[in-house]
Amino acid sequence: MIEHFLVGLALLLGLGGGYLIARSRLHGKRSERPQEVHQILLPFTGTEISRRAVDAALRLARAEGATLMPAYLAAVPKQLPLDCAISVEAAKAMPMLEAIEQRATGQGVAVDARIERGRSYRHALRRLLGDESFDRVVVSATATGAAGLSGDDLVWLLEKAPAEVLILRPGPSDESRVSATA
Amino acid sequence: MDRGHYKIFLGMAAGVGKTYRMLQEGRAEREAGRDVAIGYLEPHKREETSAQAEGLEVVPRRRVTYRDIEVEEMDLPGVLARAPELALIDELAHSNPPGLEHGKRYEDIADVLAAGVDVYSTVNVQHLESLNDRVAELTGVRVRETVPDSVLGSADEVVLIDLTPEALVERLRAGKIYPGENVAAALDNFFRVENLAALREVSLRQVAEDVESKRLTLHLDEPLGTREERVAAEVPKAVGERILALVRPQPSSQRLVRRAWRSAQRLGTGLDLLWVKPPGKPIEGKEERQVTALRRLASVLGATLLIEEHDDVVAATARVVRERGITYLMVGESLPLKGFGRLREPLPQRLMKATPAGVDVRIVAHRGDGGEGE
Q1: Which CATH architecture has domain B6-220?
Q2: Which residues of A touch B (CB under 8 A)?
Q3: pTM recorded for the entire structure
Q4: A137 forms bridges with which residues in the sheet?
């Protein structure tokens, strides 16, 4: 009687183990399925960015199940090697990326942040566009001007970016920003 | 013959008073009865500095023709022939014109020290090789004459000549550093208070690190088996902070890296990133993109990305911790374990057990969509 019970138990355990292994392999195969790359680039310079631009990028990312890539563009002075460490710029970028990530996570949007170096903001943007693939680029027109991307840069972006470009120009009264302290 | 005693006066910028202090101490030594001579002095037409040099013997400079221009340089053979007890040699980062014994003045100084002569010398912090890029980024000014950090490390004494940025700017305005016509340009460029404050911080940190490294060397030079030797074995753990962040090629690791970098900045220490890669598995596709992103982030931050191929994360991490003298280990939060994994001890606990005593393990909560974990 006990022998029968033990054989039964062994069979049960074997079947259970087999089921678990098969399930885990099936699960593994499922997760190995290639996923379509959906990335939305949100380039910015300086220590603040228009909240409207961030929210628009987040809305798009959430609607499309895309990953948001906030990218801090850093201009490396000519006297430094392009691939040098830029701790001063990094110190500006970090809190901004944290703030955007926090906002994105609150809305269930995946984030994959970058800090990109270039001789100019446009150069940094060109390097980023060359290295990564994006479906959309969201740029805040308020980030343009002396401190950020120029009008020429935006024209260049419209012509050259292999992605849909969305340039947001907030209304005159819209001054809300996402910054490290926001 | 014993090597001479080497003392370096380090400053954050021109005009803080390095040469003045060097001469002041040289005079004090002479008054104490020592044989002191100036090997090379660059008074920059500063009256106070020139006044300090009065009465001190000067080894005549030698004239050298370089690109059809006659320049005056330190006469190394002259200094060696004069062989004072103490030689005062200004501006150790100076580059000599071709045709002299050495390309750099700090190499000339090495000869003087080797001849048993004590040397006092001066240098600004931006000339140190390892700080050159950082200073250039801070100030926008690139210094071409650099010296290896080992030069500072080889000094028996490093004296920081400290001055508040405001006081230095005041000296500049009073015409004590540059002639009047150059003051406005200097104030607009290098001598901005924020630049000077950053340089001052770099200088203070450099001297603190130098003191720390000398302390280590001092302890480690003690005879084996003594109490000092045993204490020395503990010293690196006590004073030499270094952070290691355990990463994976996933976007969520970026937050961990950011946290680790900010901690490293606060501690003024180095940062290493470690990915323990499963053996034999090629890096391709999405993973390859993430490794590239991590590599770039490490480069931006001045961190080192290490990729160790090993099937045991804990063993590989423990080895890296020992090899690189890590004191802080930062790991991402593990996802809840499933199945038989629940029976295993969590990664942070296993790391605590496997790494040397005194290594702190910090868990950084992840914020994103998951995917973290062992």
Answers
A1: 3-Layer(aba) Sandwich (3.40)
A2: 20, 24, 67, 74, 77, 79-81, 83-91, 94, 97-98, 101-102, 105, 108, 110-117, 131-132
A3: 0.55
A4: A41, A165
